Amino acid sequence: MVKQAVALRLTFWKTFPLPLPSLFNTSDGFQETGRRLRTQETHKKKERKRETYGVSSCIRHVYCSKVFLCFNLISSTFCVYDYTVGTSQATITATTSSSGSSGVSRFSQFTASSGGDPENANTGHILPLPNLRQFTLAELRAATKNFRSDSLLGEGGFGKVFKGWIDDKPSSKNGNNSGTPVAVKKLNSDSVQGIQEWRAEVDFLGRLSHPNLVKLLGYSIEDQELLLVYEYVQKGSLENHLFGRGAMVQALPWDIRLKIAIGAARGLAFLHTSEKQVIYRDFKASNILLDGFYNAKISDFGLAKTGPSESKSHVTTRVMGTYGYAAPEYVSTGHLYVKSDVFGFGVVLVEMLTGLRTLDPRRPKGQENLVDWVKPLLSNKRKLKNLMDAKLEGKYPSAAAYQIAQLALKCLALDPKSRPSMEEVVVTLEKLESSRPERAPEPKVRPARLGPQKSGLQNLHNRSPLHQRQNGGMAIPHQGSPRMR
After folding, report:
1. Between the N and C ends of the chain, which has fewer C-beta atoms within 10 Å?
2. Closest alpha carbon to 264 in 200, 181, 325, 319
3. Considering 28, 282, 360, 389, which one is annotated as catalytic?
4. For the segment 227-264, what is each residue's pLDDT rounded down to a tens digit?
5. Within this chain, do residues 471 and 327 fall inside the same structural domain, yes or no?
């Protein structure tokens, strides 16, 4: 049924070609267009017939809207499109899919102002209109060598990610490793979850701009194919660098780990302090990408949600995310708080300290769940020393490591109210960075790791913004952290 609906919608787009796809609320769009038509009837009764037979832009929109309303069962999971007549460049405007809404753009929920003023001191801002390029399927096929296997960066239950090259010069030929490198996510259009995640990515990354968020460059929807085009982030994921194997993967020194933690914290803080809060909902090491200078960029907004209204403390929603990173109150009740993201950040801090995955069934009994195992040990400096990542080779300031461990403990508090805000986390980490010595003291004894290190982990080099998903949609990143669906 889903495939048939997609095919039928695309058939109507081809029959009544629209210059611009953009997310749109069918019922509100129908009402607004109807009002526009009634005004035209008053002033141009004679021209109405000619416009109807000429398939004017307004009539086409109403006709398509009526057809789309017939698919009400799945309207909440499909992108229905509106456009502005006479515009030369594509823009996307999203509205909520609930019936009876006011017709206000969903993007405008983030801010009531337009002008893109800085949202905070970290130069992040919310764009008044999404600045996305609409690619043709032919362009992306050329960019990725027709989605060849040697361009594949990663794949999961809802699609694949390919590396490509986009040339901004129309006269140049694409596909020859020239131009701008990009990551192209090709989602499965027959997957309802894949379509929902496609829409969420456009909803959030299309408007949110911050140095610590991965940049969404554009999209394509053609021939039943849903694609997203991102900036290419050279050094892959934090997960890759913490747990990867092989000569291509280098251990991260202490100062780089601190830099990554600060960048990721700034990205989350920006989301949480926007005029309309955004709950990321899936913060984990594999969703933190690193550019050529090891600046952290949060990627994959497929599960992101707008935060609660002022009168509420949480959002009640279906439990989705990744085991091991999801906050306990969310897993047990479905209540999603802004500070549920803070718990996930605390898990990543522990992973960065220890170099161990949050879940690993191959570890000794009682150590499979990293947080449950190490929480009682983080307040003990001697035990913390034994837990520190052996790949650091003892080259880290023990005082700073202890302070970060205490910060992680606060983030991992069972009560969301007891956790710090991400703004407070940023302040704490920035103080540590500014006070760090030029050269970290080396302990006399090299720290030993608790729990044997297992071999045979898959090389994670060149991980993509797309999670690896297995088992019908649950992401199990290499013996740990299954995705909750």
Report:
1. N
2. 325
3. 282
4. 999 999 999 999 999 998 766 778 999 999 999 999 99
5. yes
Judge if 308 and 439 occupy the same domain: yes
Residue type, 291: D
Tokens of 174: 């694409």
Query: What pairs with residue 24 in β-bridges?
Result: 80
pTM: 0.67
In-domain check, residue 122: no
Query: Is 186 annotated in some ligand binding site?
Result: yes
Of 19-23, 106-110, 255-259, 408-412, give the lowest mean pLDDT range.
Answer: 106-110
Among 209, 231, 253, the domain-final residue is 231
pLDDT at 232: 95
With the C-alpha atoms ordered 472, 473, 477, 482, is the resulting torsion angle positive or negative? negative
Contacts 24+ apart (CB under 8 A), 456-460: 457/243, 457/244, 457/245, 458/245, 459/244, 459/245, 459/246, 459/248, 459/249, 460/236, 460/237, 460/239, 460/240, 460/243, 460/244, 460/245, 460/249
Instruction: Tell me the average pLDDT across 200-217.
Output: 89
Higher pLDDT, 284 or 436: 284
Q: Give me the pLDDT at residue 17, please.
A: 40
Are 197 and 273 in the same domain? no
Are 193 and 285 part of one and the same domain?
Answer: no
Residue numbers of the domain that contains 94: 2-106
Does the annotation count 190 as an active-site position?
A: no
Cα Rg, the chain, nearest whole Å: 24
The percent of residues in the chain predicted with pLDDT above 70, rounded, is 59
Residues 86 and 148 placed together within one structural domain of the fold: no
Residues 355-393: pLDDT tens digits?
999 999 999 999 999 999 999 999 999 999 999 999 999
Q: Is residue 288 part of a domain?
A: yes
Residue whose C-alpha is closest to residue 105's, from 35, 195, 28:
28
Q: Give domain status of residue 64, yes or no.
A: yes
CATH of the domain at 171: 3.30.200.20
* Whether pLDDT at 332 is above 90: yes
The alpha-helical segments, DSSP class H, found in 250-317 are 254-273
Pair 301, 331 in one domain: yes
Q: 141 is written with which tokens? A: 């096929």
Residue 119 within any structural domain of the chain: no
Query: Which residue among 60, 90, 106 closes a domain?
Result: 106
273, HSE (Cβ side, Cα atoms, 13 Å): 20
Tell whether 218 and 260 lie within a shared domain. Answer: no
Q: How many domains in the chain?
A: 3
- Rounded mean pLDDT of the chain? 72
